[in-house]
Every structure is written in structure tokens, then in C-alpha cells.
Amino acid sequence: MNSTVNSSVNIVLMGPPGCGKGTQAVRIAAALGCAHLSTGDLLRAEITAGTPLGKAVASVVSAGALVPDDLVSELVLPRARAAAATTGYLLDGYPRSLPQARALLDSEIPPDRVFALDAPAPVLVERILRRARLEGRADDTPEVIEHRLRVFAESTRPVLDLFAERGLLCTVAATGPPDTVASSILDQLPRKDRLR
After folding, report:
1. In a domain? residue 75
2. Is residue 70 a part of any domain in this protein?
3. 52 in any annotated domain
4. DSSP string covering the chain, please?
5. CA–centroid distance for 77 within its chain
């Protein structure tokens, strides 16, 4: 990948656990010079800082439940607006539900493209198990992983369908080397947004 191009592009990156979304988010944001907004990182920062929003979501997050849609949108959308006004954004972990997707699409800063990283379930399970071994995550068992993948597929399918209806969705095979996957994403951006 070559030099950074600032073209103020707004991107959503979606994908199941183990697809390499975090790796790709960092690469693509750096290549385009846009702000990488990770919902998980933003939530953890609010909780650590003890903000009113952080206090409101701390117990939800610690229980492993999903943060309510309105609170997630309240967290992400102002930062996405600020980024869209300058460098553009790459959203990682938002939207995860139809209400969140509609909030983004109905805002003044809808995405230019939505990328869905795709890989077969056995590949995803193997990647997560390998990461669990490396990081000592005892709770990432094959059964738990398969449940997480099933929940992701069920909850995300309507969101992907909505983006497809709007002509925004691009599906990218996430089984190759990270540089190849990144190139596949960058190649599907409008020409003005590609690396030169």
C-alpha cells in the first residue's frame, strides 16, 4: 500500500468475529487518512473516564449484554459527524442493529460504502480458537464461538440487507493475507477515494 490519500470518505466495516475486522479497520483508516471509530474502544474509554454515558453503559457491558441502540448512537454519531467534516470516518462495530443502521442512514453523514468481510465458519472458528490460545481466553470454546457466529449472522443479516437495498454494500472475501484483503477493499472504493 502506498502513500496516504485524504479524500474524506465515510466507510462502515462489518464482519463476524474472527474475520479480521480490527486488522482491516486499522489498515484501511491509515491508507485513507480517515478516523477509525471503534465502538468497543469508545465504550471502554467512556467507562474508564466515568462519564455519564460511561456510567450508564458500564453495568450493561460488564453483564455481556448489548448496549441500547440510542446510547450507542449517542456515543458514535457525534464523533462520526466531526470526522466526516474533516478526514472522513471508518466505523468499526457500528451499526449492529436496524435502528442503529437507520440512525446512520438518516443522518447528514451516511456512509459512502459498507464493507462486509466474509469467511467460512470453520475458518472463523479456527482463527478465534488460535487467538484464544495466544491470549489465554479460556471462555472462547468452540460451542461459545459457534453461538456468537450464529447470533451475529441473525442480528446482522437485516442490517446488511438494508445497506444492500441502498446500493452501499460490498462483500469482501476475508480469507486471504491481510494486505490482499485490504487491497480488495480499497479497489472497491469510488475512484476518487482510492490510493494513487
Report:
1. no
2. no
3. no
4. --S-------EEEE--TTS-HHHHHHHHHHHHT-EEEEHHHHHHHHHHHT-HHHHHHHHHHHTTPPPPHHHHHHHHHHHHHHHHTTT-EEEES---SHHHHHHHHTSSS--SEEEEEE--HHHHHHHHHHHHHHHT-TT--HHHHHHHHHHHHHHHHHHHHHHHHTT-EEEEE--S-HHHHHHHHHHTS-GGGS--
5. 14
Cα 100–Cα 59–Cα 20 angle in degrees, nearest 5 = 50
pLDDT in tens, 130-182: 988 888 877 778 888 888 888 888 888 899 999 999 999 999 999 999 999 99
Residue 68 included in any domain: no
pLDDT band for 31, please (50, 70, 90 cuts): very high
Place of cell 477509525: 36
Structure-block grid coordinates of residue 161: 440487507
Confidence (pTM):
0.87
The CATH number given to whatever domain includes residue 21 is 3.40.50.300
